[in-house]
Write a structure and sequence with these properties.
By secondary structure, this protein is α/β, with parallel strands linked by helices. Helix content is 31%, strand content 32%. The strands form three sheets. Strands 1, 4, 5, 6, 7, 8, 9, 10 and 11 form a nine-stranded mixed sheet that branches. The protein has a two-stranded antiparallel sheet with strand order 2-3. A two-stranded antiparallel ribbon has the order 12-13. It starts with a strand and ends with a helix. It binds 1-O-pyrophosphono-5-O-phosphono-alpha-D-ribofuranose, uracil (URA) and magnesium ion. The site of 1-O-pyrophosphono-5-O-phosphono-alpha-D-ribofuranose has 22 residues, from β6, β9, α4 and α6. The site of magnesium ion (MG) has 4 residues, from α6. Its cofactor is Mg(2+). InterPro entries: PRTase-like, PRTase_dom, Upp_B, UPRT, UPRTase/APRTase.
């Protein structure tokens, strides 16, 4: 597993505003969108391309386009939905699959309540988006869904990760696939409720409100 931590003053600035508990949902959503765009630039560095011949107004030239099969972007609902538009803006030819997963806050196990993924992901580059990697349980399960469908090239885009979750992910992935994790920051630790410290709280609640 490869880890890339975005090291950029704009990322650091926007992340600080995002962490602030005084930042309300409308601004929070906007910042998530902006941060994803910055992370997506790095996350798509290895996206497969092919030569593409075009004519400019004055000459024919061989350019570049994103190759087939089209990349697949998979937001993990709910919070990952806040990152979808930013990803597809940079990857307009991508298809979108969906995973609905919720961490059981007592057992910390990830429960899957929705799964709309293509059956065969052989040869597809997949981009999983979820703002938070805490214990890693959710992303381990999500990556499993992709690997079991034949995907071998998976990029995870998160805003924050805990060191504990990264370790769990690394062990779970092993050599089953080429998994890259792109994050805005790796935080200090998890607290006794498995929340990321200093973190930003519950990303889904801050984006969309408390539902239960
Ligand atoms: O690494 P883990 O310990 O598994 O925790 C991380 C998960 O928790 C959050 O989702 P949550 O379960 O709160 O669902 P939500 O997006 O609907 O709020 C977050 O968006 C991740 O999916
Ligand atoms: O800190 C955390 C941990 C899990 N899920 C979140 O939204 N935030
Ligand atoms: Mg939540």
């Amino acid at each position: 597993m490869r880890l890339h931590v975005a090291d950029h003053p704009l990322v650091a600035h926007k992340l600080t505003v995002l962490r602030n508990k005084e930042t309300a949902s409308p601004t929070f959503r906007l910042l998530v969108d902006e941060l994803v765009t910055l992370l997506a630039y790095e996350a798509t560095r290895e996206v497969a391309t092919e030569p593409h011949t075009i004519s400019t107004p004055v000459a024919e030239t061989i350019g570049t386009r994103i190759a087939d099969p089209r990349p697949l972007v998979v937001p993990i609902l709910r919070a990952g939905l806040g990152m979808l538009d930013g990803m597809t803006r940079l990857l307009p030819t991508a298809e979108v699959g969906f995973l609905g997963m919720q961490r059981n806050e007592e057992t910390l196990e990830a429960v899957t309540y929705a799964n709309r993924l293509p059956d065969d992901l052989t040869g597809r580059q997949c981009f999983l988006v979820d703002p938070m990697l805490a214990t890693g349980g959710t992303l381990v399960a999500a990556i499993d869904f992709l690997l079991k469908r034949g995907a071998r090239d998976v990029t995870v885009v998160c805003l924050l990760a805990a060191p504990e979750g990264l370790e769990v992910l690394e062990k779970a992935v092993g050599d089953r696939g080429d998994v890259k994790v792109v994050v805005a920051a790796v935080d200090e630790r998890l607290d006794e409720n498995a929340y990321i410290i200093p973190g930003l709280g519950d990303a889904g609640d801050r984006l969309y409100g408390v539902v239960d």
